[in-house]
Amino acid sequence: MTAKAFVLIETAIGKSKEVTNTLLQLPGVASVDTVTGPYDIIAVIEGKNLNDIGDLVTGKIHPIPGISRTVTCLALQH
Fold first, then answer.
1. CA 70 to CA 42: how far, in whole Å?
2. What's the pTM?
3. On the chain, which terminus has fewer CB atoms closer than 10 Å, C or N?
4. Which residues are within 8 A (CB) of 24 and not within 5 positions of it... i.e. 6 or more apart?
5. 21, 45, 43, 25: which is closest to 33 by C-alpha?
6. Measuring CA to CA, which residue among 58, 59, 66 is closest to residue 11?
7. What is the pLDDT of residues 25-46, one digit of tens each?
8. Which domains does the chain have, with CATH numbers?
């Protein structure tokens, strides 16, 4: 079973492009979109299981310079 999540990302002013470019280089990041509204970027990430998702978010995404805050929404499988 593959796990999937949407990561809603707030960035520091002027950092969205840098953060987007960094995210696109990470294994497990399926897509990255710059959006309007309360969040600046929405990334779709995938892993073999929920532990992979957690490791990607906390170990690879959170440390990216320019990220102020994230909210991770796990996709439910039907």
1. 10
2. 0.93
3. C
4. 32
5. 43
6. 66
7. 999 999 999 999 999 999 999 9
8. 3-74 (3.30.70.920)
Residue 4, C-beta contacts closer than 8 angstroms, at least 6 positions apart: 30, 44, 45, 46, 53, 74, 75
Query: CB–CB of 61/53 below 8 Å?
Result: no
Q: What's phi and psi for 27, nearest 5 deg? A: -65, 140
Tokens at residue 67, please? 């990220």
**What is the SS3 assignment for 1-64?**
CCEEEEEEEEECCCCHHHHHHHHHCCCCEEEEEECCCCCCEEEEEEECCHHHHHHHHHHHHCCC
Q: Each residue of 50-72: pLDDT tens digit?
A: 999 999 999 999 999 999 999 99
